[in-house]
Amino acid sequence: IVNLPDFRLAQIMIFAIEEINRSEMLLPNVSIGYQIYDTCSSRMSSMSATMGLMNGPEFAAGETLILSRTTGPFKIPVVKTNTKRMLVSLFVLYLFFFSQISHTASCECLSNRKDHPSFFRTISSDYHQSRALAYIVKHLGWSWVGAVNSDNDYGNYGMAIFLNTAQKEGICVEYSEKFYRTEPEKLKKVVDTIKKGTTKVIVAFVSFIEMGLLIDQLNILNITGLQIIGVEGWITSKSLITPKSFQVMGGSLGFALRKINLEGFSDYVVKAFWETAFPCTQIKENSSQYVINCSRYQDLLALKNYNEDVPEQRYSSHVYKAVYAVAHSLHSLLKCKEQEGCEKGLTIQPQQVVEALKKVNFTVKFGDRVWFDRTGAAVAQYEVVNWQQDSDGSLQFKSVGYYDASLPPDQQFVLNTENIIWARGQLKPSSICSESCLPGTRKAAQKGRPVCCYDCIPCAEGEISNETDSNNCKQCPGEYWSNAEKNKCVLKAVEFLSFTEVMGIVLVFFSLFGAGLTVLVAILFYRMRDTPIVKANNSELSFLLLFSLTLCFLCSLTFIGQPNEWSCMLRHTAFGITFVLCISCLLGKTIVVLMAFKATLPGSNVMKWFGPAQQRLSVVAFTLIQVLICVLWLTISPPFPHKNMKYFKEKIILECSLGSTISFWAVLGYIGLLAVLCFILAFLARTLPDNFNEAKFITFSMLIFCAVWITFIPAYVSSPGKFTVAVEIFAILASSFGLLFCIFAPKCYIILLKPYQNTKKHMMGKNIF
């Protein structure tokens, strides 16, 4: 039985040798011969052929032809000389472990120059093909695949490189199984694993024989819908692509060696080769013609006029380049010159040939440059092929892209996905362990599973992810916050107590109401300024007190609205000064009551020391102290607008920073000191005999004032954001209303409702209230 692909490779070698022998430029006056042995896919046959070669007789060029049916030729050049013409014999062995140049041995294990110093190959190492498998999986958006390989050096080395590259590219492997052609139990385990697996994409780094066994088992169990990614060892094998196997393997993708048309070879295989290699007729002996018995070549002669498979031969160019590589190395060693020929009498050692092969660099007639890298391999150039069925039902290997490792990284891999027919003719399969995490979420690995298996966790508040499949959420900058979808940072909402919100409107209303009510009281007192109740306890201080209370009500408005530099400085200083002015007036009134009582005692002239002038001076003096504190505050470290992001992460509180905290508490402390002093004096004067003793009203007002501000301190410290300002305004308004009602309500009651009591007689009497 003739193995046609291997037979074509033998023809390619002979075709190249005859070309070289006819050449006047390459190895002039030197002929190359050959012997071809068949290993029959057996290690024992390989050893037998090797021994036969090493121990066999000397031969002439083109003497022996023995057909091979294995994976590829390995060549050992042997140089012989004679006196008439130099003869170089090229022995072709189908042998794995004793070789120099191979056209099919792609195993990465052979790249170790220490273990294989004399090994070269015109095919590239599987290092590139294995990496390209990972690239095509990544390019097609698959991150969850299964892996199967032959349990030999070819499969194990190739799969190891793929797995390593896949990990770097973020591809997860659900399972990685292997088997050898003589291990049916392992094959069954592999098929069971594929059947149970969740991935529909299988990377099959297996040799031709193992792939055939795997396809048979998949067919038996009717396992379909798999997207197989294959390697050059089987992806373009005509014997594998059948109507039955297509049910399982249809749509397969893989890397294949490029098809190259060797000019003249197609004609050679149907004519010149047969005339040279199989001369079945000869004219000799008594000039009569006789026919040599050709029955032993019967199988081969059936192929005599057949050449339709020639364009599909993908290894032919590599065999062609291997022969020429040996020829060029010998051309260099024999110091050949075009006109003078090659030197004679030279003894060439095998190591010299090895060193010469390392320096080979030439271009063959179909344009490929031949040279060997540091591992002894050729450059990686692949076609991407797809198993497709044409409209007429024929099954074809269609080219849908390429991979060329010699090109720049961004140009090495090209895939025309629109030309691909996927498994079972359906849409491109999806092969992921977990669905992509949308923007606004991040990936969280599932415990005990590959990194491609994850849960999608929403980003925390203030964090975003604006990309699909983000591993981490990003923290928004200080003045930004995440939107509702957590996919964009937006400016934080700026919050302050504004005039337009409900709280602000309510506080403005009570502030204006208090100011308006105070003005009405002042107008009433002005109209009744000559009546005894107004004149009692120094009416001048009463009007000054009403003025300061109006300012107290109005100063609360400076706390509302967007803080700016001027409003921040004004609000606290205005508050401090107006309240001191107010309490100074009350303190003056209290002292007046005490002094008035002392003045009624026999021989007392105390009132001359605290008359109207002294009362005004005391108010001014107490107020100037507060003014001085405020001036120092504004000079040393004034309040200023501040964006507070401590209380709320999602919004900015625009507030007035105190600047100097000591100055702020000094202002409050001074107000508190005057209030306590006023309360004590008023408390002492509350029982003095008088029909209208104002001291008890001052006592009560100071009690309310102190209670409000003592409560204010913890509320102010603990209230967040704009509520801090609201608490401060509430304290101002509450204490102001307390003073207004406690001091002036009784007087207004008499003026408006009991005018008959607003006389000197009643004022001097007792128990008006």
TrEMBL record:
InterPro entries: ANF_lig-bd_rcpt, GPCR_3, GPCR_3_9-Cys_dom, GPCR_3_9-Cys_sf, GPCR_3_C, GPCR_3_Ca_sens_rcpt-rel, GPCR_3_CS, GPCR_3_vmron_rcpt_2. It is a multi-pass membrane protein. Keywords: Cell membrane, G-protein coupled receptor, Glycoprotein, Membrane, Receptor, Signal, Transducer, Transmembrane, Transmembrane helix. The chain crosses the membrane at residues 502-526, 541-561, 573-597, 617-636, 662-685, 697-717, 729-753. Residues 503-767 form the G-protein coupled receptors family 3 profile domain. Gene3D superfamilies: 3.40.50.2300, GPCR, family 3, nine cysteines domain. Signal peptide: none annotated. One of its GO terms (cellular component) is plasma membrane. GO terms for molecular function: G protein-coupled receptor activity. It holds the Pfam family 7tm_3. It is found in: Cell membrane. Belongs to the G-protein coupled receptor 3 family. This is G-protein coupled receptors family 3 profile domain-containing protein. It comes from Cyprinus carpio.
